[in-house]
Amino acid sequence: MSSFETIFGRAPEATASAPGRVNLLGEHTDYQGGFVLPTAIPQRTTVSVARNGSAEHVLHSANSHKTLRVTVGEVGTDFAPYLTGCLNLCGVQEGMDVYVQGNVPSGGLSSSAALEVAALRALRTLYGLALDDVALALRGVQVEHEFVGVQCGVMDQMASSLADTTTMLLIDTRSLERRAVPFPEGAEVLVIDSGVPRRLAESGYNERRAQVEEASRLLGVTELRDVTDVAALDGLPELLKKRARHVVTENARVLAGLGADAAAFGQLMNASHTSLRDDYEVSHPQVDTLVALLQAHPDIFGARMTGAGFGGAVVALARAGQAAAAAQAVLASYGADGRRVVP
């Protein structure tokens, strides 16, 4: 594999990395002030940077074997906006050489957030920026909004910046208060790539956000976080009622999951997938098939799609020590070449 040195002919000035994340419960609630329960995954993205003395950024991705050139102050295309957004928001006015490598799978595991957080960490080191981990995460969200074109919430960047792989991280996305929560006893997390690609900016993600914002407006609340009784949604138009019902019930599922045993937590995950599939309508037929196979396995407590949806990864809660065997059995039935367990 290439390196910063082989591409640019010298050592980087700063290098940093950040993990992807998988969300156990709390999907599509973070842009309505809700509760989320992600954990970091072992896979990480690493970004190395150095000033190049020119008026041009040279951006190289080791994974795609692409090199992009973008004039300082501009945004660029392809993967460039994730990096130029970070550079522009950090006030970088000189040309940078940037090298990216990583093993965070795309599709539901926050590969874009890992890229942004890693890039911002490298720039924080290089320039001595006064950004704590929360401020850094919020700057990553700003990159998505202003440069990538995805009106995401705060969960992905907060998880990439603050979560670890040994606990779940309960985040109140309104106050940004957070605390570590232990995994249910006797269980382990299993993540499988469905093999269905998706791109947020070209999907219905922004549309869903607009729908729940309209539901909030019609209900006279700041955010659907302020609604705890689904009966309050009865006056909404049917489509908006479905969208809002998902957010309200998903917030309740996160809170119910705190301290739940593995069996109860698994049932909450199953209910979450049903809600995402039927009320929020962000799943995909192949994802539904994979989730159903997992839910039917005797060593799986529960399973659901994870991430924004429209393809991507699924997450399951497996009996401790049985995740690998369950994955092998389920994937044999799924019969899809290229679908893989995320180790």
Structural commentary:
By secondary structure, the protein is an alpha+beta fold. The chain folds into 2 domains: 4-179, Ribosomal Protein S5, domain 2 (2-Layer Sandwich), CATH 3.30.230.10; 184-341, Alpha-Beta Plaits (2-Layer Sandwich). It is built from 10 helices and 11 strands. Helix 3 (111-127) packs across helix 5. The longest helix has 20 residues, at 238-257. The protein is globular, with a radius of gyration of 20 Å. The mean pLDDT is 94.
Question: SSE layout and pairings?
Answer:
Blueprint: H1 4-8, E1 14-25, E2 35-51, E3 56-61, E4 66-71, H2 80-89, E5 96-102, H3 111-127, H4 133-148, H5 155-162, E6 168-172, E7 178-181, E8 187-193, H6 205-219, H7 238-257, H8 262-278, H9 285-296, E9 300-305, E10 313-319, H10 323-334, E11 340-341
Parallel strand pairs: 3-5
Antiparallel strand pairs: 1-2, 2-5, 2-6, 3-4, 6-7, 8-10, 8-11, 9-10
Helix pairs in contact: 2-3, 2-4, 3-4, 3-5, 4-5, 6-7, 7-8, 9-10
What's the Cα radius of gyration? 20 Å
What's the mean pLDDT score?
Answer: 94
Q: Please tell me the CATH architecture of the largest domain by its name.
A: 2-Layer Sandwich
Kindly report the CATH topology of the largest domain.
Answer: Ribosomal Protein S5, domain 2
The CATH class of the largest domain, by name, is Alpha Beta
- What is the number of helical segments per DSSP (H or I, 4+ residues)? 10
Number of strands: 11
Low-confidence stretches: none
The count of domains is 2
Strand content: 15-25%
Coarse structural class: alpha+beta
**Any idea what the shape is?**
globular
Major beta-sheet overview: 7 strands, mixed
Helix-strand sequence: HEEEEHEHHHEEEHHHHEEHE
- Into which percent range does the helicity of residues fall? 25-40%
Q: What is the CA–CA distance across the termini?
A: 21 Å
